[in-house]
Amino acid sequence: MTSHTLRVIASTTKYNVIMTWRFFSWTGFALRFATPLMTLGSAWVLFNYVYGGRISTEFGPAIGSSGYLSFITIGNAFYVFTFAAAFVVGRVMFWERATGTIEATFMTPMSRLAYMAGIMTAAAINALVDFISVFLIGLVFGFQIATFNVPLFIVGLLLTYFALFGIGLITNAITLTFRDRVTTANTLQVLFMVFSGIVCPIEFMPLWAQAIAKTLPLTYGIRLTRASMLNIGTINATSDILMLILLGIIYFVVGATTLRLIERNLKRKALFSVF
Amino acid sequence: MSMRVVLAEATKDLKVYFFSSRTLFWTLALPLANGLYLYFLYLPFAAKSVDLQFISTNRRIDLIGFTVVGQLLYTFFTMMLLAGAAFDVERWQGTLETVLLSPANRIAILLGGALANALNYMWMLVALVLSWVAFIRINVFITDFLALSLSFLLSYLAIIALGMCLEAFFIYSRRGSMIVAWFQEPIMFLSGQVFPLQSMPTILLPLSYLLPLTFGLIAVRLTLLGGATLTEVAVPLVALAIMAVSFSILAKLMVNFAERHAKAKATLTMF
Questions:
Q1: Pairing mode, strands B49-54 and B57-62
Q2: Which of A65, A165, B120, B164 could covalently link to B251 via disulfide, CB atoms 3.0 to 4.6 Å apart?
Q3: Which DSSP state fits A115?
Q4: pTM here?
């Protein structure tokens, strides 16, 4: 059983990596950098031209480091990486339905979760290019790495992925039920972009926004990545890791359960490929 | 004849998209989220206001108002761009060839889509502005209603005209959506939506002045939030009027060229 699951993950990963590079689109690839470039550019103009290099005196103590542009670069790089990798999962069922393969996919005996995990792994491999590219772009805007705590970085990344995988499963369940094209995935994307603390420490946000931020795995993932690269001592890494584990379990259980229930319901009502 | 095409296209689009999940996302969720994102971008600087300067006019504008108005106008711009996706939708549906075989004026089709999108968005825009004024206490400061009305009207016309130029890409290329999506972030950056235009690096300013959104943002922000008069915003208003006329002419030429090219190469419905 475990061997079969691993084979599904490996074959799905291989197939998706090949497909991505065989039909590689430069315009689509470049489009993924539009938002981070705009954010980095805007932050650079605000920092250098509008406010002449002056930031709030509370900024340094809040994040434990005063490197504003490094702070923004890491937030964006992590966001681009996780977005490129994790949100592919949220759109799996939409594309299966659109290409007319959804019924065939669900007739196979393979584990649905293994199939989605394979797609996510392939996306993560491809997204490494995005991740490194944003850091290289960040160098132009003044990104400076203070240290690199590899174990903390990897733990933060893997746990964030796990939690986002759960959210991807929930998104698929919604897509399957409501025939939604991409609105759910897009809405989730902007939710993550706004409230995960990409452009400012969440302590600076209004209380209601902080409450939303605390339910998003990306918030903790970005904090851990910043802690691992900017040598931030004020962040409590243990509590962030525990929160990521907790959120990951909750999202995964909810996602896997709803997907299974919805699959059963759609099969019973013969609604898989009905538009 | 053209008016009937405009009305028919607008009616169709209103029936299909009014209060759909697509409209709600593009007109409510995305602008709200982007507005917040831009507002949060300013928080590390502990800023409460922004200095907005254009030629000899200089006003200090409330930060929330600055980002909210910027985002609303930008969303309006995006909606106008999406209006022309009409050709893309027709292609997906397999009806593009039929539409372009009809004697309907192509510009009228685009104007119909733009009108529907404006109506789809306008009621939400008014509701949002009123609610934000009431609940967030945005400091609205208007001294010249004529200047404000002209700022909105000319921005609307110039933005539609540029939008129609871009729509030629939807006929010309299968990558029309991608090309238009490509323009969005650079336009956000160059138009001064995120930060005041006087802070734009000088080398990029010529590109900023090619965009109607740039002048629209200056005129609307100054008249709605800074109490500027008609004389003070005369330059951006004249620029908007010139753009509205010149982009309209250019749009007609570009759409005709794209249609001729696609028909000659038989690429209207090819995927």
A1: antiparallel
A2: B164
A3: H
A4: 0.83
A237, pLDDT greater than 80:
yes
The rounded distance, in Å, linking the Cα atoms of A80 and A198 is 11
Of A51, A183, A199, the CB nearest to B40: A199
Banded pLDDT at B271 (limits 50, 70, 90)? low
CA gap B216, B192 in Å, rounded: 10
Domain ranges for chain B, please list them: 2-265
- Per-residue pLDDT for A232 more than 80? no
What ranges in B191-233 are assigned the alpha helix state H? 205-208, 212-225
> Which pLDDT band holds residue A181 (cuts at 50, 70, 90)?
low
pLDDT exceeds 60 at position B82: yes
Of the listed ranges A52-61, B185-194, B231-240, the least confidently predicted one is A52-61
Mutation target to probe the B interface, by most B beta carbons within 10 A, among A33, A37, A45, A216 is: A45
Q: Which residues of B touch A (CB under 8 A)?
A: 21-22, 24-25, 29-30, 33-34, 36-38, 40-47, 50, 175, 178-179, 181-182, 184-186, 188-189, 194-196, 199-201
Q: Please list the residues that pair with A27 across neighbouring strands.
A: none
